[in-house]
């Protein structure tokens, strides 16, 4: 390094070079999932393929020098819905439309509430145990979960609200059960050995854009909800889950503007949500999208609390073109004007496959992105996390 600066050693997530969590699904896994959907193989056969591919992925992550590994979300079709469907009282539903992204509509899938929401016996706990059992000594498992606010938004959407109201006539009862269910799952994960939870959250990323008037109309007696009310709502339910968790459990969050088949859902800087997101949400670190001009400037980072870390998503996961090395380094130092360099890390802006379709790049491309992040981090912070 050219500067005689001593940086603190990162011993828990986020590390100096990191990942958001999802990886492109290998062809064998895609084929197995299609065969299972067609009734050609049973659940045990699909699980066996998932197990094999996850073990392969873990070894690739370790070989890439990553200190926090995930299962690539290989057991999921969606980054968020599969987790929701794992709750008791929540089931799969086919809506009239999928989610609308820039130039593309997703597959049609959402949730329906059939009973009181409960977090006992969630399948993600066993998923974590499997991953934990196959990482090498010194490698941590990062468990990714959709944020509580994400479930709330899904349930209070105009598409789902009428069914929700049959079980939950009041918002207060719904909020209470979401909080309780999340705490149950996270407690079970902690008891299984999890020490890093990442809450993936598109709710703030959507707020940076201008929302439809009826985005959520189930609050305040059915009247349209303002952006300020939504910010407080998201903050409240996320913090209600985070508060009271074990002190040695690290909770980070990833703020996303949408990542489906290399498309995006929202555009806008963090200025609109920096307060209260960056100074009042009780997380350890923020994984932030900064891979395009849709993310705005670094100015809102001035709002980040002094005890929190920021992971700069300066490398895009949406295509395979490698970023210019010096440009990325320059941008890291530009961000350091607002958050000290010692509290910064580097990653891609999102995962490589938030859904099983995956982004439009190759497996080699995704590993090249990670290698670039590692190389840049070693130059900027002088680390070698092999």
Which structural traits does this protein have?
TIM Barrel, 6-stranded parallel β-sheet, two-stranded parallel ribbon, EC 2.1.1.14, alpha/beta, single chain, UROD/MetE-like_sf, 5-methyltetrahydropteroyltriglutamate-homocysteine S-methyltransferase activity, transferase, 386 residues, 5-methyltetrahydropteroyltriglutamate--homocysteine S-methyltransferase, 12 helices
Description:
The protein has 386 residues and is α/β, with parallel strands linked by helices. The chain is 37% helix and 15% strand. It is built from twelve helices and twelve strands. The strands form four sheets. It has a six-stranded parallel sheet. Strands 1-6 form a two-stranded parallel sheet. It has a two-stranded antiparallel ribbon with strand order 2-5. Helix 1 runs antiparallel to helix 2, helix 5 crosses helix 9 and helix 7 runs parallel beside helix 9. The protein is globular and about 60 Å long.
Widest β-sheet, arrangement of strands: 7-8-9-10-11-12
What is the H/E order? HHEHEEEEHEEHHHEHHEHEEHEH
| Mean of pLDDT | 92
Number of strands: 12
Please outline the helices and strands.
Blueprint: H1 27-37, H2 43-63, E1 68-69, H3 81-85, E2 88-93, E3 100-101, E4 104-105, E5 110-118, H4 123-134, E6 140-141, E7 143-146, H5 148-156, H6 161-167, H7 171-191, E8 196-201, H8 203-207, H9 227-242, E9 250-255, H10 274-280, E10 285-289, E11 309-315, H11 325-335, E12 344-348, H12 363-381
Helix pairs in contact: 1-2, 5-9, 7-9
Keywords: Methyltransferase, Transferase
InterPro entries: Met_Synth_C/arc (IPR002629), UROD/MetE-like_sf (IPR038071)
Organism: Furfurilactobacillus milii
